[in-house]
Design a protein that fits this description.
The protein contains ten helices and ten strands. Strands 1-2-3-5-4 form a five-stranded antiparallel beta sheet, with helices on both faces. This is Phosphotransferase family protein.
Length: 336
């Protein structure tokens, strides 16, 4: 790694403070300092290395090149994305591809947040929604991302992708998820007329905070071009779960957050139950993938097995958003 960095930087390099970052589910992270020497003086750059997880991973196809491209394009925009430094696509250095980005100061409140932030929670949440609005108002043509995906087909692509992922891992029929998929297709609205950059995983745990403001937006694996309301449906679904920022008395109600989003983005949410149901389908499938990876021995992350216990509840919630209240068999969703 040091030799590779020396070639990239073009001068003497050493690595200090190498440590694993235990955060998130979808990639492996290493934090360290890159010390470079020039003209008898040294400089230090704190960085994070993001490495492709061993296949099969939770999110496939896992495209680091795409992530690096998106982060590179966002440099200089209003989106507070980490600055990327170097990319190694071959896997020859560490066994798998990786890229290196600047380490950003800030605290991530993924599952828990201290009581001390309760009085500041409203400003933090508003900063988060302002950053989501910044994502949705990026001029994709100006930053070179207009060809990232076919934005007009986004909703169709989402349904097809998560259904294919479900079929990739399921061991037997899953009637409740089948019904949710059918109801989503039956009740699908026309896509939002404005095609935007879509983050794809706009959860509170993917935002870092410093001084009550978002300092960085992380985890761009599912970023695409398409319907911005899919990000809002995902956020709404997560806001129903009493964890992290959403669990504190100072956190605004979701309706207040969405009103602030409309004020800063000019985008008005619509068809909210359908987008929440789509988010529930996506979340249930992701939990199912994790459960099956754990069952097959591809992962030892016990969170994958535990998250699967939420699949019946999430599926039921998605169905209820579309008016389906009858009891349905979930099928085998738990890891053996």
């Amino acid at each position: 790694m040091t030799a590779w960095l020396r070639d990239e930087v073009g001068t003497h390099v050493r690595i200090e403070g190498l440590e694993s970052v235990e955060f998130g589910h979808s990639a492996e992270l290493l934090a360290f300092a890159v010390i470079t020497a020039r003209n008898d003086s040294e400089s230090c750059r704190d960085v994070v290395l993001r490495m492709r997880p061993p296949p099969p991973a939770l999110l496939e196809p896992y495209d680091l090149d795409r992530q690096f491209r998106v982060l590179s394009a966002l440099a200089g925009s209003a989106v507070r994305a980490p600055s990327v430094c170097w990319y190694e696509p071959t896997g020859e250095i560490l066994g798998r591809p990786f890229f290196v980005m600047d380490r950003v100061d800030g605290t991530v409140y993924e599952l828990e947040a201290p009581e001390a932030i309760s009085e500041r929670g409203e400003r933090m949440c508003r900063s988060m929604i302002e950053q989501l609005a910044a994502v949705h108002t990026v001029d994709v043509a100006a930053v070179g991302l207009a060809d990232l995906a076919d934005g007009a087909s986004h909703l169709t692509r989402e349904l097809e992708h998560w259904t294919a992922e479900r079929h990739r891992v399921q061991a037997a029929p899953l009637p409740a998820l089948d019904r949710l998929r059918a109801e989503l297709e039956r009740a699908a609205p026309s896509p939002f007329p404005l095609v935007t950059l879509v983050h794809g995983d706009a959860k509170p745990g993917n935002f870092a905070f410093a001084d009550d403001e978002v300092s960085a937006v992380f985890d761009w694996e599912m970023t695409t071009l398409g319907d911005p309301l899919t990000d809002l449906g995902w956020l709404e679904l997560l806001w129903m779960q009493p964890v992290g920022l959403a669990s504190h008395p100072g956190a605004p109600a979701i309706d207040d957050l969405l009103a602030h989003y409309t004020a800063v983005s000019g985008i008005t949410p619509q068809h909210r139950p359908w987008y929440r149901a789509l988010a529930a389908y996506k979340m249930a499938v992701i939990c199912l993938i994790g459960s099956m990876l754990y069952a097959a021995g591809h992962s030892t992350d016990e969170r994958y097995a535990l998250n699967a216990y939420g699949i019946p509840m999430i599926t039921k919630l998605g169905l209820s958003e579309l008016g389906v209240t009858e009891a349905l068999d979930d099928g085998p969703v738990l890891a053996r």
